[in-house]
Amino acid sequence: MAWNLQSDRPIYTQILEQIQTRIISGCYKPGEKLPSVRELAAEANVNPNTMQKAFAELERSGLISTQRTSGRTVTEDTSMIEQLKNQMAVSQIQSFIDAMQQLGYSKEEIYNLVTKTLRGGNE
Amino acid sequence: MAWNLQSDRPIYTQILEQIQTRIISGCYKPGEKLPSVRELAAEANVNPNTMQKAFAELERSGLISTQRTSGRTVTEDTSMIEQLKNQMAVSQIQSFIDAMQQLGYSKEEIYNLVTKTLRGGNE
DNA sequence: ATTATTGTATTAAGTAGATAGTACAGTAAT
DNA sequence: ATTACTGTACTATCTACTTAATACAATAAT
Question: Which residues on chain B place their C-beta less than 8 Å from a C-beta of chain A?
């Protein structure tokens, strides 16, 4: 999975979210060692300080932990990961429906549009 | 409808979007005169310059127009408004589904979660 | 004519985010 | 011991966003 960074929001926030997503989707597995700050920064075409800032946040939440000089690892607490997954899903759904309703779509219309889109797409 | 402004994105961008939403949802009607920059700025608890910046963007898109000294009005081009509504809806749906799939949810799971949420909510 | 209100422009200041460059301390591998 | 890699810290600089405080020209209302 590639890094997808826009300029309309802080980069470190987007990196934070995308690392979370990678952990949740199993791209980075529980207990697995993460690439180094410098490596990931190069990969994302970002300053190491920016990547570092994202990691600092991730650690406050407990999702990853640091072994001072040998790198970082994803938490082995799978229930924590599962919980975060649910949280993010609920939040996605809620803000999606809110936005659609504010545009003036009824529940039924939202339902129909989602159904139609899900049918149409690939895979 | 109240202003909902977060600090994680530029204020003027959020104002821009929310004015678009108000026009699309009919809160500000086609041809209607808009409140002044200063008035809206006070209402949103924001500097007039920030509100002005949002309006400048809205004008580039043609959604509103300016009568130099008597204020601004919403476009009367209802098909333009309708088109913007569709655009924003499609974009909402797409990025919602993308985000869910990246979290690891299948189309069927997305469908079920959306259905369940739509059933549960109010109104 | 005067007054108030409109959009608009300008300058200055403060803040947050991002980059660049450098440095240090701890550990693993050799 | 040396080397290479790790996270971490620090300073300086640049840009974008936001606020503040004015100011001006055009029009609507009086």
Answer: 1, 8-10, 13, 21, 24-26, 85, 88-89, 92-94, 96-97, 99-100, 102-105, 107, 110-111, 113-115, 117-118, 121
